[in-house]
Every structure is written in C-alpha cells, then in structure tokens.
C-alpha cells in the first residue's frame, strides 16, 4: 500500500511531496508503537529509507524535528524507527539552503543545530543505546562528535548497571570516528566513581540499613569484567585506541584506579603492549612508593599536600576484585607479581655475596615493591585455582635457576604458600619432588630455606619424604662440599621433626611443626616404631660425616642439640656418637697434660694447614646435650634423686663417663700452662707461615675449650665458692691466651685477627650477667663475690654480650643452642636489656673512675654499646615488639604511667637524656666523648619510636635544640651526632630551612669571610658550632640542603604534570589556577630562605677539599632547581596567561643580585686554593699546606665542579630571558654579567703587582732605566 502511495505521489510536485511526508509522519510512530510484527516494521523502515533522499529540504527538516521531539518526549523506546534518522540527517546535510527562523542556513549548519539541541535535551535512559548506535551512521564533524560523546558519558550514571556493557561496546565502535581519549577516560572514570561509592557503602554499611546498598558488589564486578573484555577487544582491532589508552597513564600515576589496573593487565595479554604495560606499572609502583617515602619523611610536604594515593593498595584491590570471574586479568597478575619480584628482589653483592640479610621489615621503595609482588602472588594462589600450578612451577624454577643471586624472597613466598594451602600443594607434589633432585647443586642457604618450607608436607606425604631421603643419601656422597652440607641440613631437619614415641616433652616441641590444616597422627604405635627405625637409620648416615671436613662436622655438632631437645628418645644413640668421637681426642691418662690431643685436630695439605676437627664445638655440643638431658629428666620426674643409677644401666653409662671426663679436663686445664700447648709468648702467630697458622688454630681451639669449661662448671657449681674459684682460674688462663693473640695480631702489618666468636651460649651469658650485676640473694653472695672481684671477668662477660647481639643484628640468629629460636632469643634480649640498663643507671661512671680510671669506665661503655645494639636489633628484627622489650626493663617501677607505649618509651629517653646532661655538665676536661656519642645514638634510635604528632616528640625536639644551642664542646664526633639527631627530628616537625639559615650564619661567623678584610658580624645561635666543629657542621648542613632541593624538585615536577593535564582539559584550568597557589608560594619561600643560607656559606672561608666541592655541587643543584622553576613559569605563562607572582620576582632578584656574584668570587677563592693556616716559618707546615693545596686543586679539576656550576648559572639566565619575553616582565635587570672565565684579569691583584714592581725598581735604579721602562708601559697598556 505504501509503495502504491509513493508511486502516486511524485516528489517533484508539492502535493506529492506533502503526501509522502504524511506517510512518513504516520509510519514512524506506528513502527515505534510495537503493534506491528517486527518483520513488517523492518520492511516499512527499509522502504522509507530508500525514498528519503527524494524528499525536499523543508520536509526533511520537518521530519528531523519530528524525530528530535519524539526523542525529547521519550517516545523512541524500541529504537526501531531510529534507523531512519541517520538517512534523514545525511540527506539534510546534502541540502544547499534551508529556511531557519527568519533567515536561511546551509544543510550542514542545520544538522549541527539539530544535533546540538538533541544533545542538550533530556534523553530517556531507555533509548541511550539506540541513539548511540544511531550516531555511528551519521556523518559527524569532530565538534559534533564531542557533543555526542559528552552527552552519552553523562548519561552513564542514569542507566541501569546491566545496560552499561552494551553501551560501552557501542561507544567503542563510535570511537572509530575520533575522541578516543575522551571515550576511554569517560568509561574509566565512571567505574572509578562506582568503585569509590561501593567502598563507601561497604564502610558505612554496618551503621546503615541494608536496603541502602545501591550497587550489589558482585554485579558491579561482573559488569566491570565485561566492560574490560569489550575494551581489550576494541584495542586489539584498533591500535590507535591502544596508543591513546597507554599515553593517558604515562604522565602520572594519579589517574590509576583498581579498574584501570585490571584493564592494563588485560591489555598486557596483547603481545605488542605487554612490555609497555609492565614498564608503565613498574614505574608507577616504584614512583608511588618513593613519593610515599618522601612525604612520610617530611612534615613540610605532609602539611602542603593531601594524602598520598597508594598504587600498591589499588593492585591488592584488583587482586581481590578478580575473584568475580576476571580470568582475563589473572594471567596479568601472575606476570606482574613475578616481574616485581624479579626486578626488585635483593641483588647479589660483590663476589656473589648477598648484600641484604632477609630483614623482616621492608624499608626502601624497592623492598616494598618486591614485597608487593609476593603479596599479589600469594593472594592469587589462594583465590584462583587455574593459576596455582603455574605460580608454584615458576617459584620452584627460580629457586633452582637463580643460584647466583639471593632468593630469600622466593623462599618466603614458597613457605607462605605451603602454610596457606598445604593440601593443594600435595596435588602437585611431583613438582616439589623434581626440585629435590637439584638439592645437592643449590647454595646452602637456599636448601635450608626450601627444606624448612616443605617441612609441614613431609609429615603428610610418605612419597615426598621417601623422595627427599633418597636425594639426601645421594648428596651425602656428593663431590661438592656444599652438597654434603645440604645433606646434613636435611637429615637434621628430619630428625627434629619426626618424634619418636616416649620422647620427653620439651616446651618448644610443638611450635613450627603443626600446620593449621594438617592434623596427622604421628604418635600412633605404628608410626612411632617406624619413626624410630627411620631416625636411627638417619643417624647412622650422619655418623659418616664425622670423618669429613670441619665444616660438615660443625653443622652436625650445631644441629644435634636441637634434635635432642625435640626428640629425647634418640639421646642414647646421639650421646654414644658424641662420646666415641670425643674419646679420639681425649687423653685418658690422668697425669698427662694437656688433657686433649690437638695434633689430630689439624691436617696439612702441602704447605697448607687447616682445621680438621672443630674440637671446641664438639665439646660444646656434648656439654649442651648433657645439660639439656639432665634438665629434661629433672622436669619429667622431679622427686627421683637416686634414679640416676637405674638410668645409667639402660643407657650404657655414658652420663657418668662424660661427667668424669669433663671434671678431669677442668682439673687438668687449670694446671696447664700455655707452654703445654706450645703457645707461649715466643710462639709465632703470623698468618703468613704454616707454623703461625697452626698456632692460631690451636689458640682458638684452646680458648674455645676454656669457654665451654667455664660454662659447664658454672652450671655444675650451684654457687659454691670453691667451684667459682676454679672457674676464675680457667678464665685467667683464657685471658692470658687471648691477650697474647691480641698483642701478636696487633704487631703484624696485616691486622689479620678478629676476636674469635665466643662459644658461650646465649642463655648462659644472659644468666651470667644477671647474677654478676643484679643478684642480691644472701646465700649466693659469698660465691658471687669471687666473680665480682675480678674486673676483667665482668668486662669479658659484657663484651661477649655485645658480640652476641651484634651477630643477632647482622644475621638474625646467634651461634650455639637456641640461637635460631626467635622466641627464646627475644626473651634473652629482654633479660639482658634490663640488666645492662640497671648497671648503667645505678653505678655512675664517675664513681668507678675514682678507683681504676682505665678499666671501669669501659664497663659503662660496654653496657651502653650493648643497649644501643639491642635497640637497633629490636627495631630491625622485631619491630612490633619494641614496647614489650621496654616494658620488661624493670627500672621503671617507680613510674606510674606505664600503660602508654609512648610514655614508656619517653621514660627511657629521659633516662638517657639525664645521663647525657650529666656528661655535659662535667666540663670539657672530664667529658667522655665515646660515651656521649653512644648516648646520642641510643636517643636517635629510641626517638624513631615516637609519633611526630605526640607531645613527647615536641619535648624531644625542644631538648635537642637546647643542647645544641648551649653546649660549646670542641668535639667533632659529638657535634656530628647531635646535629644529625636534630635534623632527623626537625624534618618531621617542620621545614628545616630556617634552621639551616641559622647554622650557616654561625659557620660563616666562626670561619671568617673569603675576603680577609671583611669583618663578619659575630652571630651565635648554636654554641655547638665553633672553630673546631664548623667544618663538621658544614658537611652536615649540605646534605640537608640537598634534601630540601629534592623536595622542591619533586613539588615542581608534580605541579608541571598538573598543569599539563589541566591543559588537556581546558575547562578546569581557570578554576585550578586560583587553588594551586599554596604549592607555588611554599616553593618560592623555601627557595628564598635556602638562597639566603647558601649566600652565607658562599662567603665563608671553607677549607679546600670535600667541603668546598660539596658546596659547589649544591650550588649547581640550586641553580638547576631554579631553572626548573623558571621553565614551569614559562609553561604557565604560555598556557594560562597568568602574571608572574611578586614573590617569584623577589626570588629572582635575590638570586641575581646576591647569590650569583658571590658564587663567582667563591669560584675565584676555590681556584686560588689559598689555605689559611698554612703560613708560619715552620717549613714542615708550609710543605704540608702546599701538598694540601695541590691535592685539593687536583680534586677540583677531577670533579669538574666549577665548570658545572658556571654552566648551570648560565642555563638559568638563558631561561630567564625566555621567561622575560613571555611574561613581559624584565627579569634580567637583576642579573650581572659573569666574570668567571678561563681568561680573566683581576684588576685589584694586577694593580698591587705593578706597584710592587715600581718599588723594587726604584731601589735598584741603574743606567739602563730607559730600557726597563718600556716593557712596563706595555704591560700597563694591555
């Protein structure tokens, strides 16, 4: 019917065209109404489309406005007839002219008006998708497209969540026409907003009713997942879109959010973007951590800027969100995790040594990034089934292949995986078994970590255990020493963890064995019998090691004690093994001295002598095992005193044998003189000859034996006076030998000898110092007085304490029993802390010094050194236990306010402040610099625990300032400590520039001006800066200047990025211009004060050398920073047409009129290298000063500090000229022309030289005066 109407209405006649228009006007609502069948409607629309171009312009205009009105009213629900609209618009655009209102418009213009009114009107949410689809077919100019895109993005928030993915899809298709960045930004910011709302709702969800939740989380995540798929698909097809997407994140990471990170990770699956994406994320992560560190370290930045947005948190959120079926993101997450761990893991140091011990706390940005990688992988492993195999495989591969670099971070990850999901690991146990095959080729540390990690699995899986035992047996016969060591480690670990029934419970048995998800009945009858056979079999394997190198034996001796403590049923076989080994070296004849044979303990290979049997460790192991067994028995049946004999018969009598041996050894070792070991004063100890090496080995063995016997006898003595006298005898022998060693090694040119590590156990040394210094029990008094009267012994005890703590600080464990048990070690630390603190505070060093000046002041110093090391270790290894450590120190009993950690911490700070104050009030002659330095170090460690916002922190700063202002001791090291403490505290309190200015003025007034005629005004803010310490202060001030410049550079760069991003979205630029002022103001003020401070330093007569060069470097940096600021203002002037702030002009004036001229005169001063203090008649002095001058001149030449400075000043001036042109402000009026060039004539020096010449010539006037006159005139003419 419609066809026939069209046939009868020729478009050329007006009547025909009107009739046609009528048909159109009726058909469109008819199709939209939904009364027709879809096929019929589609046919009608198809027919109408074909005929559209025949309509005249006016009818087209009418039709178009019909469409627009229908859309405005919301009648275009089904979107059927919208297919016609693009055809109408295209036909319209082709028209020459249309009447519009009173005038005429071209078709293009008319179309633009239509689109404009359409986009500014209200759209029904239902038809948004249809409209977006429709616009794909309309030819649009760029401006029109922007209108449309903006409108669609604004509509996002009005739509239902389910409708977002199809709309995103249509928008991405539309992006083919342009506006790619706008579309991507719009989509990402919409999801970012939704995420934030979702998070807010979750936070407040607890306190609100449940119905409020507008977006169910799982639904949002699924929609996001679909949107990500659409975008990635579009990027695969349109590389331009991909480029735009990555470009938007390159400048700053501030725009990242969990959604965009997930999107980036999905895009990374497209091969051409993979590398770019990971580099981008790596950069963002490390920059985020660095910025966070910078902000946390400076109060000035915290006040100036809002909270830091953490990329790490976003990545962790992305991992959590990926639970909702984001399979396309998980692969990227795995790659990212390993990428971070590989890039930022610990690096091998020189000669393949590990530089960082595995510290418990991440401190640097790189450590944080590595830890983040581990977190991502661990979370991914827990959440996603499909990627588990891959993660596990990659971790194990890295453990095997990365033998040259440290793998502690992978070991940590692996052990976390085992603990979190042991059962899942068993499914892929074949991978773990494969790893075992490589054990004998891996570095020892890796093997130890790996075996510790798989330990929970061995209990459950017989096959794993069998595989491991096979591998370890092979390794026992490995040709590599490390392989055999690995075998010993592995076997000892197995012995520790497979309990034999009937073993006496030791308090530590249970820990670190049971993994939360595994409950295995290791104690059933069958198991324990099997375990016993299994353990004895392992022991017989281990006995073979007793014939191997000293290193292997050493491991065995260090491991037996732990095995025994966990598995006391193995006692008899272990003790028999030790006893038979000991008998090889023991001299059974009671009258013969010495009681041990040292010959078999060493072996020679050519002219090399080396240790074969670590005898001292063997005895140590035997003693500790014996004592441990006796304790276990005591605790098992405390009443049976006489049961020893019964036990003896069971156990083959090793106990009494050992006791007699040890008693006989003690007796005979006391009788021994050093000659008996061929170790008297005349013996040779140089490490160059084989005799010297042999004697050194003997000496260390004998000293070790003495130490073990001291410990054994102390435990056995039970506070009897006679035994303690024997103990002191043993000590005096030890002391004699150690003195000889010290003396000999002091003489040799190579200081070869460190003090050998003490063999006393941590528990013993902790008990010993407690009874020495704090035990007031009446019954023990007499016996203890024997030990207390020996000052050397007290000092030895304290030095061992310091040595043990140092070892703990460096490696995280100590030698000897329980050395690797962190709980116990921490308990010993607490005990030691309280003793050392008591000893230091209750016996003032003044009192001691009256008696013996030399010896006893060192006791206090040892106590302090011990405390300093304990606090440092605790902060590194047990960061969360600091308060626990402090609360065990029981001096604080008299103070009531114990509950608050900060208060407690401050209580101890006050104790040490008091001690330091006492030191300072004693006057300079009595001042003990070493003690003061230790006190300052302790104060700086403890003050790190204070929160910068607390009142205690402010009190601490006030106190430090007061000390620095009032103390005038000429002690460089003390000054250095105090000023470092002041700077570290001050930067967390407020910006340090004013402080730096005062210090620079002090240094200037102390050291005098570079121009000797100038009298510097005497200023003294800080008494601590004086003639002697001014250089030290200068060297401390300059790094602080560097730090301030770092912050300025960072702020300016940040502002630059903001300005750049404002430029790309011009709408917001004007409004931000007003708000952004505070940062600029702060930067200008900071730099102003800094320039004034540097202006003081540049005029100071600094000694040639490091100080001068560092100052020149800092000046270069200052000008570079000023140049960056000028470039920033050039950018601002170009894009926003703002006037320059008056403050900035002042800054330029300050730099030009004050600093630059002074810099040039300082350069002249530095180059002339005139050292004050080099004068005097003394030739030696003169020589030395000349040598100094020469050295510093050479240093100046090599470092190129001067040319760099001149270059940076000139760069600064060059950009100032550009800025002057851009801003129409003459900034160059403040600048003076530079005079510092390679060729220069210093007018004053020249005149002086000429006058001297005149005088000398008058004196020696002679006949040929005319001839000499001419050259002189020439010279003047020049």
Automatic annotation (TrEMBL):
Listed Acidic residues bias regions: 642-652, 1255-1268
Residue ranges constituting the FANCI solenoid domain according to the UniProt record: 18-235, 329-492, 759-982, 996-1247
One of the protein's GO biological processes: DNA repair
Compositionally biased region (Polar residues): 1058-1077
Region (Disordered): 636-655, 1057-1079, 1252-1278
GO MF entries: DNA polymerase binding
Domain FANCI helical, chain residue ranges per copy: 240-321, 506-742
PANTHER family hit by this protein: BC025462 PROTEIN (PTHR21818), FANCONI ANEMIA GROUP I PROTEIN (PTHR21818:SF0)
Protein name: Fanconi anemia group I protein isoform X2
Name of the coding gene: fanci
């Amino acid at each position: 019917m419609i066809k026939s109407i069209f046939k009868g209405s020729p478009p050329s006649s007006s009547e025909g065209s009107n009739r046609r228009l009528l048909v159109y006007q009726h058909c469109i609502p008819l199709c939209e109404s939904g009364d027709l069948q879809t096929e019929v409607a589609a046919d009608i629309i198809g027919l109408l489309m074909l005929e559209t171009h025949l309509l005249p312009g006016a009818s087209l205009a009418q039709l178009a406005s019909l469409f627009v009105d229908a859309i405005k009213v919301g009648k275009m629900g089904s979107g059927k007839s919208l297919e016609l609209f693009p055809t109408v618009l295209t036909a319209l655009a082709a028209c020459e002219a249309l009447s519009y209102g009173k005038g005429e418009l071209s078709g293009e213009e008319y179309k633009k008006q239509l689109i404009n009114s359409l986009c500014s009107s209200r759209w029904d949410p239902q038809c948004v998708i249809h409209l977006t689809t429709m616009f794909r077919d309309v030819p649009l100019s760029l401006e029109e497209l922007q209108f449309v895109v903006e409108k669609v993005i604004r509509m996002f928030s009005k739509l239902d969540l389910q409708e977002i993915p199809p709309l995103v899809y249509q928008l991405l298709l539309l992006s083919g026409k342009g506006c790619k960045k706008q579309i991507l930004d719009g989509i990402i910011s919409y999801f970012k907003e939704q995420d934030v709302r979702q998070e807010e709702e979750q936070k407040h969800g607890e306190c609100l009713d449940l119905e409020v939740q507008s977006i169910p989380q799982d639904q949002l995540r699924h929609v996001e997942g679909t949107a990500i798929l659409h975008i990635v698909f579009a990027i695969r097809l349109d590389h331009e879109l991909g480029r735009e997407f990555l470009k938007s994140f390159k400048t700053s990471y501030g725009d990242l959010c969990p959604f965009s990170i997930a999107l980036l990770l999905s895009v990374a699956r497209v091969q051409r973007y993979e590398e770019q994406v990971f580099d981008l994320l790596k950069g963002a992560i490390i920059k985020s951590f660095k910025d966070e560190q910078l902000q946390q370290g400076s109060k000035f930045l915290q006040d100036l800027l809002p909270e830091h947005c953490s990329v790490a948190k976003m990545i962790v959120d992305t991992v959590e969100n990926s639970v909702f079926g984001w399979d396309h993101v998980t692969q990227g997450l795995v790659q990212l995790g390993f990428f971070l761990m590989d890039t930022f893991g610990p690096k091998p140091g020189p000669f393949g040594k590990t530089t960082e011990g595995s510290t418990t706390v991440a401190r640097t940005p790189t450590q944080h990034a590595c830890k983040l990688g581990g977190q991502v992988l661990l979370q991914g492993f827990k959440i996603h089934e499909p990627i588990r195999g891959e993660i596990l495989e990659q971790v194990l591969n890295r453990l095997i292949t990365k033998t040259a670099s440290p793998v502690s971070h992978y070991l940590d990850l692996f052990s976390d995986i085992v603990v979190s999901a042991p059962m899942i690991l068993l499914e892929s146990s074949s991978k773990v078994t494969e790893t075992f095959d490589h054990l004998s080729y891996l570095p020892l540390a890796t093997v130890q970590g790996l075996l510790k990690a798989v330990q929970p699995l061995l209990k459950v899986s017989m096959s794993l255990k069998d595989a491991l035992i096979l591998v370890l047996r092979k390794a026992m016969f490995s040709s590599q020493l490390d392989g055999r060591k690995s075998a010993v480690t592995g076997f000892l670990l197995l012995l520790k963890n497979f309990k034999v029934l009937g073993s006496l419970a030791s308090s530590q048995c249970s820990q670190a064995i049971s993994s939360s998800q595994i409950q295995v009945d290791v104690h059933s009858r069958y198991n324990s019998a099997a375990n016993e056979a299994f353990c004895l079999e392992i022991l017989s394997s281990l006995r073979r090691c007793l014939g191997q190198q000293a290193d292997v034996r050493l491991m065995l001796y260090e491991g037996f004690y732990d095995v025994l403590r966990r598995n006391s049923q193995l006692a008899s076989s272990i003790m028999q093994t030790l006893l038979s080994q000991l008998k090889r070296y023991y001299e059974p004849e009671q009258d013969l001295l010495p009681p041990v044979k040292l010959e078999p303990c060493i072996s020679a290979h050519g002219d090399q002598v080396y240790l074969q049997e670590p005898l001292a460790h063997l005895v140590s192991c035997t003693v500790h095992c014996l004592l441990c067994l006796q304790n276990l028995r005591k605790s098992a049946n405390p009443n049976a005193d006489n049961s020893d004999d019964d036990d003896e018969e069971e156990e083959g009598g090793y106990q009494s044998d050992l006791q007699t041996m040890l008693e006989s050894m003690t007796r005979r070792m006391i009788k021994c003189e050093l000659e008996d070991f061929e170790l008297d004063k005349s013996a040779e100890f140089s490490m160059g000859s084989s005799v010297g090496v042999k004697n050194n080995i003997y000496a260390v063995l004998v000293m070790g034996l003495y130490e073990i016997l001291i410990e054994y006898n102390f435990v056995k003595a039970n506070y009897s006076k006679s035994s303690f006298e024997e103990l002191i005898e043993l000590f005096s022998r030890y002391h004699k030998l150690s003195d000889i060693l010290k003396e000999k090694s002091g003489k040799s040119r190579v200081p070869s000898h460190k003090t050998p590590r003490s063999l006393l156990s941590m528990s013993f040394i902790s008990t010993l110092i407690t009874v020495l210094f704090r035990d007031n029990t009446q019954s023990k008094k007499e016996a203890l007085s024997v030990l207390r009267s020996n000052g050397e012994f007290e000092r030895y005890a304290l030095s061992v304490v310091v040595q043990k703590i140092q070892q703990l600080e460096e490696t995280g464990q100590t030698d000897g029993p329980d050395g690797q048990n962190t709980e116990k070690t921490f308990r010993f630390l607490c005990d030691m802390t309280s003793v050392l603190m008591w000893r230091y505070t209750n016996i003032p060093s003044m009192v001691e010094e009256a008696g013996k000046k030399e010896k006893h002041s060192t006791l206090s110093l040892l106590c302090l050194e011990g405390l300093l090391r304990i606090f440092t270790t605790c902060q590194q290894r047990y960061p969360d236990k600091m308060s626990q450590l402090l609360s065990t120190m029981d001096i604080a009993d008299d103070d009531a306010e114990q509950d608050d950690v900060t208060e407690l911490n401050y209580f101890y700070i006050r104790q040490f402040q008091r001690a330091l104050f006492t030191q300072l009030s004693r006057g300079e002659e009595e001042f003990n610099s070493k003690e003061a330095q230790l006190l300052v170090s302790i104060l700086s460690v403890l003050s790190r625990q204070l929160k910068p916002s607390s009142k205690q922190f402010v009190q601490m700063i006030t106190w430090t300032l007061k000390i620095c202002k009032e103390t005038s001791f000429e002690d460089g090291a003390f000054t250095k400590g105090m000023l470092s403490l002041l700077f570290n505290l001050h930067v967390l309190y407020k910006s340090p520039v004013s402080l730096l200015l005062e210090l620079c003025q002090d240094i200037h007034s102390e050291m005098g001006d570079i121009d000797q005629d100038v009298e510097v005004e005497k200023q003294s803010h800080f008494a601590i800066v004086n003639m002697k310490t001014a250089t030290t202060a200068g060297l401390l001030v300059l790094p602080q200047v560097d730090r301030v410049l770092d912050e300025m550079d960072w702020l300016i760069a940040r502002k630059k990025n903001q300005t750049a991003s404002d430029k790309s979205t011009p709408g917001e630029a004007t409004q931000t211009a007003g708000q952004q002022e505070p940062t600029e103001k702060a930067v200008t003020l900071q730099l102003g004060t800094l320039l004034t401070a540097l202006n003081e330093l540049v005029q100071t007569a600094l000694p040639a050398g490091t100080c001068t060069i560092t100052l020149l470097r800092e000046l270069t940096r200052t000008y570079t920073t000023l140049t960056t600021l000028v470039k920033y203002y050039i950018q601002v002037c170009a894009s926003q047409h703002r006037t320059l702030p008056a403050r900035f002009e002042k800054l330029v004036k300050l730099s030009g009129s004050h600093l630059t001229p002074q810099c040039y005169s300082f350069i002249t001063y530095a180059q002339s290298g005139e050292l004050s203090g080099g004068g005097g008649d003394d030739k030696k002095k003169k020589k030395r000063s000349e040598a100094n001058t020469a050295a510093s001149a050479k240093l100046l030449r090599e470092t190129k500090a001067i040319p760099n400075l001149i270059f940076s000043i000139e760069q600064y001036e060059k950009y100032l000229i550009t800025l002057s042109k851009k801003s129409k402000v003459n900034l160059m009026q403040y600048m003076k022309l530079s005079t510092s060039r390679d060729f220069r004539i210093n007018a004053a020096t020249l005149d002086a030289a000429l006058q001297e010449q005149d005088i000398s010539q008058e004196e020696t006037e002679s006949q040929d005066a005319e001839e000499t006159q001419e050259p002189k005139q020439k010279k003047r003419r020049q």
